[in-house]
Write a structure and sequence with these properties.
alpha+beta, two-stranded antiparallel sheet, 10 strands
Amino acid sequence: MPNQQVAQNRSLSEAEENPPMTKELSFWEFPDTLQPKRFWISTATGTGIYSGFSIGLWNSWYKNQDISAFHLFNDMGEWNQYDKAGHFMTAYIEAYYGYRLARWTGMDHKSSVWTGAGIGTGLQLTIEIMDGFSEKWGFSWGDIAFNELGVALFTIQALTWEEQRILMKYSTNNFNYPDDFALSGNERYYIPDRAAELYGTLTLETALKDYNEQKTWASVNVWSFLPERENSRFPKWLNVAVGYGVGNIYGGFDNSWTDENGVVFNIDNEYPRYRQVLLSLDIDLTKVKTKSKFWNAILTGFNWVKIPAPTLEWNTLGQVKFHPIYW
């Protein structure tokens, strides 16, 4: 017995001197408890990005426009409503990644959901307030409504399923502007110049502004809706995506504009505006798992981008098209 007691005491002493190793938290993992260091890093970084974005947007976009008193503007009839689809998508994406940033700090699921919802709402509201002081635009309740619908799509899924089964995604492709002129009496206006005036010419500009090139998608993860999905052989990562797009958009409400000499051009008859409904396949990159936490995080970071895939298009010109690869 004395020898047994000595051995036990020695074991206890060694355990105190050499406590069990705790697993070191990976940078890419979501912790179970709040990490103050991560929280303050995220807060400072987020504040800096928000401030820089707001200042940069004002100086590069709104500062060059005529400023007026704060006012409202009903723009529900503009751009064949593609801008509203964009508001819906953007607010959803901001809420989703705001949630993931909050989870990275160790905040619990529900707190992170509401943090993400607040980030999506706040970022879009900032832009809308700036619009309200621009003489060219104005504060739009329609934009606010679609912003909140996008935030709601994220929030309801997160609180109901604790996952995102329906993802909002973005894509862009080149729109073939006609090598043609708009005519008004003896005057003519090169149509690609009108597009450049509206949407810019740089790749980044057109990716953000050209409604003829952008597409908004609702990407549905089929596997997540199956009744016995854990036993299903259906690919977890395979999504079905429904998209919305527009074409021949050369003005807000119609395809007419006035040049610097007061000449009015209208190409509604020659190039009628149209809408597109798209059906395609997609990939949920969060369900493509690698052995690397880093690459898993990178894939998740790009999950707002629609993957190029075969696509069926129907448009209001009465056309049905099949695209072998469409983005």
